[in-house]
User: Fold these one by one.
Assistant:
Number 1:
Amino acid sequence: MATTQPPQQPKLGLTFYSLTNEWVSGKYDLESLVKRVAEAGIGPGVEIVGFATIRSFPEVSSDFVKSWRDLLDKYELEPSCLAINIDSALRRDRMLTEDEAADYLLRQLESAHKLGFPTVRTQMGATPGVIAKVVPTAEKYGIKMGMEIHAPEGAASPSVLRVREAYEKIGSPVLGFTPDFSSTMHSLPPGQIEAFIRDGMARELVADLNAAWRLEGTPLDRFEFFAEAAAAKGYRRNSIAHVQMGFNMFGREAVESWQDILPQVVHVHSKFYEIDEAGNEPSIDVPRIMELLVDGGYTGYVSSEWEGHVFREANEVDPIELIQRHHRLERRGIEAALQKQQKHQVSA
Amino acid sequence: MTFAGTFIVEDSLQADDQKLKYKIRLPWYRSLPLSSVTNLEVGLDGVPVDSKNLRVELNGKILSLEEFEPLWDEYWFVQDNATILIEGHPALGDAVEVRTRINLRSPYIMVAPDQPLITNTDVTTTFPVKGAN
């Protein structure tokens, strides 16, 4: 029977983290940012970092809740995900106990509920004990908890496998993952390489850097391999020490590695750094990952997360325009997957 | 990292014969507990400022560096500027070269078990000298 329903697909949007330079320097307040996002058509999903957007976080005032809900209604946007933090090293004299860490998360879950978020992004710092303590509250509110998988980790890293085991033991439908595409890059971002050179790395070492980055092994081992190549060419270690972060921030797992956790994906960070003139992301195969999500039946939110602000100054580029172009690139992958599905239906 | 780029508030320095002040932003993307500020150093025209003459105005308080440590339940909101206050500075010309260094101990990013990341932001700025009000 023919169906007139629109095909199931992910919903696009952004995280305000993309606007870090502009937010930190006070270019926008909340209303002007929401308005700009709506006018640029880069919703509907809006993700915020609680500790960046909300002054009173982890608590939210009733006034803030009202203005937040009114703003999103007015501009026809949807709350997609609240990024929350564990902050287990809040105190300098000791780490938080499990009870204290759980309480810290519960306060943020309460805020997520008041603000209407269907999902929170959690981080690897949440131990299985802490997760178990907060799950009943997340279940009560129907809020999904998506542990972020970010470079240098990937879906099959030992630390993530431990989380997957803990999830299995706890067995709650609210537990899932937030893949961040920084884990599955095929190249270092060209802008980042230029920044490494600006900060003292010899241009002559670019090929060595790329080759070392593509090796198998831990970030530290691969960096050491690069340091040896640089030393062999006569470059001192202090001229390349700053490059080490590139081995941690940018991961080289295969795109297909996400397949293992696809049924548990509750939110997505579509990390990107640049969009070239042809409309492609030079370091991430965005359409391929989007196809994989559609093929896996994912219909949640995908937040465009521009992180080029770690190497681009404020006013150098406009993240809003970049996100418009990023959405076009994401749609290319979504449409390719949907066309493939339709062909299968026709031929079946 | 362009947190160095947004760290110092341009044109914010004011000075009179005794006091000098200017504004900085939190060099991070999210608010941090005040306990995260583990080190702050300022140099004027290449001369380090004695920490006993250095204060920070934030959240309506005037704090010495040591006073940040116990304030783990209070945040530096990421859009708020902090004012650096210096008592008793050397004679200034029309411009002063100010070096500001801050270390922030991340409450949530661990580089090893129970070992937080410590960021270092170190920026030298040349300010025109303007009178304090």
Note: Chain A has a mean pLDDT of 95.
Number 2:
Amino acid sequence: MTRKGRRLVVIGTAGAVLAGALGLALNAMRDTIVFFRAPSEVAAATVPPGKRFRLGGLVDANSVKRGPDQTVEFSVGDGASSVPVRYRGLLPDLFREGQGVVTEGTLSTSGVFVADTVLARHDESYMPREVADALKSQGRWKGSEAAAPAQLRQATQ
Amino acid sequence: MTAELGHFALTLALGLSLMQCAVPFWGARAGDPVLMGLAAPVALSVFGLIALAFGALVVAHVGSDFSVLNVVENSHTTKPLLYKITGVWGNHEGSMLLWIVILAIFGALVALSDSLSLRLKTNALAVQAAITIAFLVFILFSSNPFERVDPAPAEGQDLNPVLQDLGLAIHPPLLYLGYVGFSMTFALAIAALIEGRIDAGWARAARPWALLAWCFLTLGIAMGSYWAYYELGWGGFWFWDPVENASLMPWLAGTALLHSIVVMEKRDALKVWTILLAILTFSLSLLGTFLVRSGVLTSVHAFAVDPARGTFILVILSVFIGGSLALFAWRAPLLRPGGIFAPISREGALILNNLLLASACATVFIGTLYPLALEAVAGAKISVGAPYYDLTFVPLIVPLLLVLPIGQALSWKRGDLLAVGQRLLAALAAALCVTLALIAWRSGGPVMAPIGVGLGAYLVLAAASEIWSRSHQPGRPLAVALRRARGLPLSAWGSAVAHGGVGLMVIGIAAQGWSTETIATARPGSAIEVGGYRVEFRDLGSRVGPNYREEVATLVIGGSSAPVAVVESGKRFFPARATTTTEAGIATLGLSQVYVSLGETYPDGSVGFRLYHKPLVLLIWIGALVMAAGGALSLADRRVRIGAAVRARPVSAAVPAE
């Protein structure tokens, strides 16, 4: 094979692999991304049932009810509205009423958010950024970024 | 006093780093050997000072000096000694200090190494000093671990209980040794660009550093994965979480770098690409530090962070990545391009390896950063999870694994595909048998699992056949083959072992297709079924640890006749932080595990459990250990060892005249 031919093979392969990777990424992006929704957006009926999304906000006080067979029901709110959530399984250690939470699942036709994932955190003062933004948009966010989670924690104690 | 000493040592180290950056660089420009010679002793002093500062912080933590804010926020008098020590880097400030300690260790290693030419070593140390300066400024001005608090409280707030684990002693140091280790190849690449000259000698000098960093990064990621597996109580080993991806990206780029350096060393080709990879790998390490330390991404592994610090790291990030890429664009055309070569050859296969690894890395990069970009542009908040990576990463990695044994068996310059095919036929046939047997045995199970296990078996067998075909000649007795196998270069063993480790890991991951999960409530005395095991819940008790109270369920795992293991699954309550952690009960049965998480206790006395049976799950981490062991074997090879004497006799024209 000539020098030019070899170079063409290398460049051709590189182009094919890169184009393939890009195609895969774009294609996957279309079908697999999951949007984050605040409770107010869900209440405004902008999310169709059966579509997978992440719901984040604060776990409403006195809303956690434990049913049989490890089902848990609670509601997630952002001050303006709240959405009932059903989940089966073990809740993360840092799951508490009044604290920020992010769950992932789909909305049932009855308006209950059926979550299959409740995101765990490693740190009790960590507030997921999306939740902080959702609270800010409802005017529920108090104080500076660093101080607010601590205030929220005190509010629940 | 200790805290002030530490603070002072850091400040002094900053001053010396400025000197280490400017003076030797000037010396290298002016060709002054005295100024150039200054780099090594100054680098050693910087290391000494930073180590002293780190020691001062350790002393403050161990002695529970609550006049230091960092100790107040992260320690408690009742905390066990091990966690008082590991708690030093279990927080933002201390973790950045650990980062820079490791940077200084690598600087000192370069200073002591005699395998580099003086000019290359000088320039590399100057580049290293620039990184040290940036991070020292960051620590001193925005994350000072030695800040005092007055009046000093009587008791600290304790370390986050999730971190009170042996994992904290092992995972961050290993991960940082990997991340920061790639600063060495970065510094060497920048030094080469400054010199405007690069050759096989550069590759020989850079290869051990890349190998060393790669081994540590492999171990660090594997250790982090195992820690998350047993600590989070979910039984998952990889979540495709942004923080995990942040460590995977430099690993993928580093793996590509490792292979392209070999091509450069052996064939004097791929030079510009190797330099670019060295820059990108460390840039991705910096990006990883930024993503983890800034909190811009929502992650299951995230900790509370101060956004101002994120901005600071972002500035460091842009200066280093932007600066090095600009330098690359300016100077790379000066580098004499390497030769072009036959597509069917070892180097051709390594190009394919690099292409696939780089593409896989790019898809992870897109998946990790696209949510950030989209939010900045369109304001929409999205998350990208496992389904995305199943559709992008997996289709790129599987072809890589399929051609891996072929590339390994091809010879340099001109390979013979037919001969390689014949050598691999046995491995391929055996792997196919494994797959078919598994499909027959587990009929109706997941389709991908037997195929994945077959792929892993193919990799392991091909690695073994690589050693076999290099040592065995038809017609010669076995003893001769064994002797020849012992005589093979360690780097040949290293590559076979590391590739076998990849196979083991693939088997472990694929076997998770057969894992089973049971969510159930049980009363003491009753039993739950999981993965063919009968798990009897014996009783629920409580006990008191040094700084926690624990509720423990004891469960007996029964085989077909006699019990095979007893596990304790608990929940620990840490009063100092009013936090609970789950301590999963894990029974290791061969290479498989039964994993029990404790849930809620109900008023009627029953207890919720989540149980998993994870077949062959240990192979995932054993595979990573074997990969790192392969890297270590290569590193032990006389020809690549750090500090190996430079050949006096030029092997080819490409070796620099010293």
Note: Chain B is about 60% helix and 10% strand.
